């Protein structure tokens, strides 16, 4: 089988999903030609194009160039399958033309719903407005024309089937995976003086930055000498996070607002005793398992994150604690409970949770199943 990864999506450590899928396919002996490349603009910048016409024009030109290169590759290689990476919904349009010309099947890695991200989570378009309705219709039109859609959770599969009226038999669930050469298990500290809590991210609404800040305030007020926090990242809600921190909490939080490499973030996870996931209240929170949760589990670290159907799908483990989404009090209680409890080593349980759900071995089996459909 010959597969061309086509279009304007990104293939880089920042988007490990595409790189890992390519690697697993090659392990299966598939003839893979990856036309995707590293992009200057992140997914946040791409979503921001809905508000900035100059960004939109630049991204459109880049997209057209990618279509040209991908079209030439399809003409030369005549692939059995065209794989469109996330996030690149519009790439389905030229892929449909190539399907007609060369008979290649089209798979779109939908991951998560673009309309939900832009309207419900980022709130870049007015709900129910003209642009919202236009985006929804466009997304529904394109999703229903791909031969197969790939998503990361059962909840996102249900969303595509119910909201966008996609045939469920054409939607395949493939959980996200990571570079395990970077995210290996780290040893746990033998003697803990204080509880170390880490959070990293791009501060999108999904993360619930204000909830985290309010939880930090409560923890620092109750047990100021027992917990230290390290935060890494910047983004849409970073200023709201800073504004929500109390003066006392500011002294307990080390915050680096730079964008760091995977290796640097791995160092942060290794430093921590507990890593924080996401705590927002949008519908998207209920449907996703973010990279930061998977990174922490792979590192052998306990995780506290919002309770959701997506996370609830894992087998129960003390290495993954769920708290109500949007509840700073519940998050603070969970952190404080660990600060006051005897030290415990749940690194093996965390890694086991990763291995059974997100490892390369687990993904290899699913990709083989997908390609045999």
Automatic annotation (TrEMBL):
Gene3D superfamilies: Glycogen Phosphorylase B. Signal peptide: none annotated. InterPro entries: Glyco_trans_4-like_N. Coiled coil: none annotated. One of its GO terms (molecular function) is glycosyltransferase activity. Keywords: Transferase. Residues 17-175 form the Glycosyltransferase subfamily 4-like N-terminal domain. Transmembrane segments: none annotated. This is Group 1 glycosyl transferase. It comes from Oceanococcus atlanticus.
């Amino acid at each position: 089988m010959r597969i061309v990864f086509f279009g304007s999506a990104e293939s880089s450590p920042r988007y490990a999903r595409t790189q890992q899928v390519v690697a697993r396919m090659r392990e299966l002996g598939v003839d893979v030609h990856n036309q995707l490349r590293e992009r200057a603009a992140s997914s946040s910048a791409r979503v921001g194009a809905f508000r900035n016409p100059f960004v939109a024009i630049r991204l459109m030109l880049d997209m057209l160039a990618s279509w040209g290169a991908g079209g030439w590759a399809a003409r030369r290689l005549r692939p059995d399958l065209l794989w469109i990476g996330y996030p690149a919904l519009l790439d389905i349009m030229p892929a449909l033309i190539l399907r007609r010309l060369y008979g290649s099947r089209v798979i779109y890695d939908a991951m998560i719903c673009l309309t939900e991200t832009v309207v419900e989570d980022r709130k870049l378009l007015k709900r129910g407005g003209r642009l919202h309705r236009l985006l929804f219709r466009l997304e529904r039109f394109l999703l229903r024309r791909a031969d197969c859609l790939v998503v990361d959770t059962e909840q996102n599969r249900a969303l595509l089937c119910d909201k966008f009226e996609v045939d469920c038999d054409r939607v395949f669930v493939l959980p996200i995976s990571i570079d395990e050469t970077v995210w290996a298990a780290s040893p746990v500290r033998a003697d803990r003086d204080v509880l170390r809590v880490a959070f990293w991210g791009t501060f999108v609404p999904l993360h619930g930055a204000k909830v985290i800040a309010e939880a930090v305030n409560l923890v620092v007020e109750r047990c100021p000498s027992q917990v230290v926090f390290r935060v890494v990242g910047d983004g849409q809600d970073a200023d709201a996070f800073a504004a929500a921190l109390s003066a006392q909490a500011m002294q307990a939080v080390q915050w680096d607002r730079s964008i760091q490499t995977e290796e640097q973030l791995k160092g942060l996870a290794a430093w921590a005793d507990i890593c924080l996931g996401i705590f927002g209240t949008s519908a998207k929170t209920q449907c996703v398992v973010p990279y930061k949760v998977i990174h922490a589990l792979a590192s052998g670290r306990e995780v506290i994150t919002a309770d959701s159907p997506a996370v609830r799908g894992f087998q129960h483990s003390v290495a993954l604690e769920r708290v109500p989404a949007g509840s700073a009090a519940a998050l603070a209680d969970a952190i404080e409970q660990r600060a006051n409890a005897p030290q415990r080593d749940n690194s093996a349980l965390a890694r086991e949770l990763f291995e059974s759900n997100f490892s390369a071995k687990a993904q290899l089996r699913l990709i083989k199943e997908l390609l045999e459909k």
